[in-house]
C-alpha cells in the first residue's frame, strides 16, 4: 500500500525519504511510515498540520525512527524530532552501517 491510499487526507509528502526505505503505511497506524529492507527500522512522518494528527497539538514530534526486532516487535525509538534533517541523516547513517 501507499501512504496516499492509506492516508488520503495526508496531502503531498513534504520531505524526501532516504533511499532504501519503502512505503509501509497502513491505515490502522497513526501516520504514514517507510521501512528498511528487513523491516527492522521504520521512519514515521506525521501530518504537517498538527491539528490533523491523531495525536493533535500534544504530539511529541512530527518525525521519528523506531527500531523493531526480526519478528516485528517494537524495540526502541532511535530519534524523535521536528527536525527532518536530523531524522534523514540518522536514517542514511544507519543504512550505510549495515
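-> sequence recovered:
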Amino acid at each position: 500500500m501507499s501512504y496516499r491510499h492509506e492516508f488520503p487526507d495526508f496531502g503531498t509528502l513534504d520531505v524526501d525519504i532516504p533511499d532504501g526505505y519503502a512505503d509501509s503505511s497502513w491505515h490502522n497506524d497513526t501516520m504514514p511510515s517507510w521501512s528498511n529492507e528487513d523491516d527492522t527500522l521504520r521512519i514515521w512522518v506525521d501530518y504537517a498540520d498538527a491539528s490533523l494528527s491523531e495525536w493533535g497539538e500534544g504530539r511529541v514530534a512530527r518525525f521519528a525512527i523506531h527500531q523493531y526486532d526480526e519478528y516485528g516487535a517494537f524495540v526502541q525509538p532511535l530519534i524523535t524530532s521536528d527536525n527532518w534533517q536530523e531524522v534523514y541523516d540518522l536514517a542514511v547513517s544507519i543504512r550505510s552501517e549495515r
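The chain has two helices and five strands.
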